[in-house]
Design goal:
CATH superfamily: Dihydropteroate synthase-like
Order of helices and strands: EEEHEHEHEHEHEHEHHEH
Largest sheet: 8 strands, parallel
Strand order of the largest sheet: 8-7-6-5-4-3-10-9
CATH architecture: Alpha-Beta Barrel
Radius of gyration: 18 Å
Oligomer: single chain
Number of domains: 1
Strand content: 15-25%
Shape: globular
Number of strands: 10
Distance between the termini: 21 Å
Number of helices: 9
Length: about 300
């Protein structure tokens, strides 16, 4: 299986990729405000890369439940300086790649920059600044402007399922069969994206854990991830610190690492190829340990 993002290629099977979260926002649910300053965001992103992230997902608009939209110019002001400076640092050969030292790991690949946005103009500016992937929470939109941008740049595209918008998505989400309906969404979107000039090799699928789903919906999706990992496209799973994990433990966002790692390991066992995480070092090592066991199981 091949994933292409501009000039970069990832060929699976290979160790799962870890996508490090870089929130340049004042109000993200876990680390809002910590990296709003561009200097702090760049330092944080480089640290995540040193810890083993092969993708850095830069976002300037919170998509937590109830978050208010950010004006386009403000989002651009937050993310473009970070992406530009990250591109310079990564081009210089920074950082030293810790993940390349892991036993049995592949040679280190370049660190890719992803832009986490719902706005086509922000995606365009980010790709012009050096990003290679568009992580699109609003992949269910009716319009094609975002897809035209992705097609023009031959960028990687994360197609995420969500019911509603961040403002409405947790207001009584409802499904007859959440696993079946998310699978049908993926099938329809792959056809639509290809019709809009986006090759299948550019697309990663994300079931959108926590985006318009109840805790039970999230658990059902996690329990049936193998429904989406049948070889069509790589699957990205993002559960890091999410609120549904706290429903079962009572822990706040910064205490949910053990549950986040458990879900990441189970996702990789089910065939997920990309894990999106706040805690990159811990996630990389947990996933590599799981992969070592799974490799023996296959033998």
């Amino acid at each position: 299986m091949l994933f292409r993002a501009r000039q970069f290629e990832f060929r699976f099977p290979r160790p799962a990729l870890v996508m490090g979260i870089v929130n340049v926002t004042p109000d993200s649910f876990s680390d809002g405000g910590k990296y709003l300053d561009a200097d702090a965001a760049v330092r944080h992103a480089l640290t995540l890369a040193e810890e083993g992230a092969e993708i850095l997902d830069v976002g300037g608009e919170s998509t937590r439940p109830g978050a208010e939209p950010v004006p386009e110019q403000e989002e651009l002001h937050r993310v473009i300086p970070v992406i530009e400076r990250l591109g310079v640092e990564l081009e210089r050969g920074r950082p030293a790649r810790v993940n390349s030292k892991l036993a049995g790991g592949p040679p280190a690949l370049p660190v890719l920059i992803s832009i986490d946005t719902m706005k086509p103009a922000v995606a365009r500016a980010a790709l012009e600044a050096g990003a290679s992937i568009v992580n699109d929470v609003a992949a269910g939109r009716p319009g094609a402007e975002m897809w035209q941008v992705v097609s023009e740049f031959r960028a990687g595209y994360v197609c995420m399922h969500a019911q509603g918008t961040p403002q409405t998505m947790q207001q009584n989400p409802h499904y007859q069969d959440v696993v079946r309906e998310v699978g049908e969404f993926f099938g329809e979107r792959l056809k639509t994206l290809e019709a809009n000039g986006i090759a299948p090799e550019q697309v990663v699928l994300d079931p959108g854990i926590g985006f318009g789903k109840t805790p039970e919906h999230n658990l059902s999706l996690l329990a049936h991830l193998d429904s989406f990992t049948n070889g069509r496209r790589p699957l990205l799973v993002g559960v890091s610190r999410k609120s549904f994990l706290g429903k079962f433990s009572g822990l706040d966002a910064n205490e949910r690492l053990p549950a986040s790692l458990a879900c990441a390991i189970l996702a990789v066992e089910s065939g997920a190829r990309i894990i999106r995480a706040h805690d990159v070092w811990e996630t990389v090592h947990a996933v590599r340990g799981a992969e070592a066991v799974l490799a023996k199981r296959k033998k």
